[in-house]
Amino acid sequence: MRTHHRLLVVAVLVLAAMGLAALVGANVLGGQRVAEGGRPGQPHRTLEPGEAPHGDFHRFRLGAIDGERLAPNRDDFAARTSPNGPLLLFLPATRAKPADYQRFLTTALDDGYHVLGLDYWNLGRTLSGTCEADARCYGQVQRNRFDGTRGSTFSDVSPAGSIVSRFRDAVAHLDDVDPAGGWGRFVQADEDIRWQDIVVAGHSQGGGEAAYIAHIRPVLGALMFSSPVESVGPVHAAWMDHPGQTPASRMYALDDVRDEFGPRITGSWSAMGLDGARGTEGPAGTDGPWRTDTAPPPPAADPHAILTDLPVGDPRWAHSRIIKDSTPLDEHGDPRMLRIWQWMLHRFPTPAVPSGRS
User: Fold this and answer.
1) What's CA 289's distance to the chain center, in Å?
2) Number of neighbours of residue 299 by Cβ within 10 angstroms
3) Dihedral sign, CA of 170, 128, 207, 186?
4) Burial 321-355 (b: 16+ CB within 10 A, else e)
5) CA 122 to CA 167: how far, in whole Å?
6) Each residue's pLDDT tens digit, 7-34
7) What 3-state class would DSSP assign to 175?
8) Which residues pair with 117 in a beta bridge?
9) I need a labelling partner for 173 at 20 to 30 A (CA). Which of 10, 284, 286, 352 fits?
10) What is the rounded distance in angstroms from the CA atom of residue 120 to the CA atom of residue 165?
């Protein structure tokens, strides 16, 4: 009898567990947001060498938008300190995710930004591999991923799955979980996004998308890391041939001299007029990207295209280690790129960082 009773209890527990699992699965599949980690603005903690930050960020996944399940749908990262700071919208590289950039996102957070690392459609082939020498293809693919228009055989993201749609839904979620955080001011009542209060940033394909957004929208600024990878010899993205909504004076780009995609990147910089190729001289009075090891430019300089010279082991790693969490660390466990990241972030005004953050 006791054995039978125990088996009955175990059976009940197993069924209860299965029911709970089914409920959780139904919530996720039904579009419920999944949240984990701390709320925005948790206390800062010094990192150990080789350790990536994780405690400061609110991690969440968006649910279904307009009845459509998002794909991909990996964790978004968000945090803030002051409720009135500008927003840094960060877009990862091809097949990368926001979790791969926590060191840089933490640097922006510590400088007073609202920070949103946003997942988006970045699967499949790279943008440069998709478009190659087809100059018009770049803008068509980037516009499709931005707002879901201009679908084609190269890119067919729906409006619901676009960057704009994901951004609005992410901001609505953050405004719900942190109502005193000032998130709602980045989307107006008519759902227009307040681009003038947003610095768009990204790595590789994400950096090219950030540059394209700055071209079609008047953003506060744009930061491009190892990007845009949008030129092949004399051919570059067609949208670079025309002045954009955001002037080059509010756009900054960074890469390393060892980047295997360097010629495609510096060619894009030249087409965009970031390196003096369109008549704006560099700080030393000569055209071309400003060069450094990892030190930031001197106080009087304001270069918009920067090449670092940072030994990273295998040169194939240079494209990622300029910005990803695999970036080399110094003897204190801080990224060797930290000061130049900060220099770029400081190009735009932010409020004073509250005490308790470093």
Assistant:
1) 23
2) 6
3) negative
4) bbbbbebebeeeeebbbbebbebbbebbebeebee
5) 15
6) 444 444 444 444 434 333 323 322 333 3
7) helix
8) 77, 90
9) 352
10) 10
